[in-house]
Amino acid sequence: MSSKVSRRQFLSYTLMGVGGFMVSATVMPMVRFAVDPVLQTKGEGEFIPTSQKVAELTETPVRVDFTIKDRKDAWYKSDVSDTAWVYKEGDQVIALSPVCKHLGCTVNWEGDEHKNEFFCPCHAGRYEKNGKNIPGTPPLGPLDEYMVEEVDGYLHIGKTVPNTLV
Ligand code: FES
Question: So where does this one cross the membrane (predicted)?
Fold first, then answer.
């Protein structure tokens, strides 16, 4: 039995090797691009600085706007504006998401007829100050809560978590 490689076999192996390399060099970047968002870490532990001084917070919720820089949404990076309703309960700082749990409209603090409540103008959804949805109105769950921390006297806002107050 001869272990010699024929000229035809040599050419075939060489072409398969070179062809395989060229295909993988072409396909791998495409595969990497396609799954890139899956491979990214979400940075969920990040806190966003705001211009709100913690010492100026009271028991009345105030609207605090903040910007998330370079938020990655799949392949796109952009600055995203967000809002929280923030107040103090004793020493605890509470930040609630303004996103209504009915269909996602933005809730407001108090209206002419809804004292000491959050009110959603879209379908008259109502929430207590701690974010608890008021039975008999459209929302079926409480407002989410933001994680918060104080850095050098300023409020920093983190990710949303299910409401821990109700
Ligand atoms: S979206 Fe808020 S009550 Fe419907």
Answer: 12-31
Answer yes or no: is the C-beta of 120 below 6 A from any ligand 1 atom. Answer: yes
**74 Rama sector, left if φ>0, alpha if ψ -120 to 50, beta otherwise:** left
Confidence of residue 2 (pLDDT cuts 50, 70, 90): low
Q: 48 CB less than 6 Å from ligand 1?
A: no
Q: What are the pLDDT digits (tens) for 151-166?
A: 999 999 999 999 999 9
Instruction: Band the pLDDT of 140: cuts 50, 70, 90.
Output: very high
Q: For residue 106, how far is its CA from the centre of ligand 1 (angstroms)?
A: 8
How many whole angstroms separate alpha carbon 71 and alpha carbon 154?
22
Any ligand 1 atom below 6 A from CB of 122: yes
Percent of the chain residues past pLDDT 90, beyond the cut: 62
Give the ligand 1 atom nearest the CA of 103: 1
Instruction: Report which ligand 1 atom has the smallest distance to the Cα of 138.
Output: 3
Q: Which pTM value belongs to this model?
A: 0.73
List Cα–Cα distances, 2 to 10, 13, 54, in angstroms: 15, 18, 85
* CATH code of residue 106: 2.102.10.10
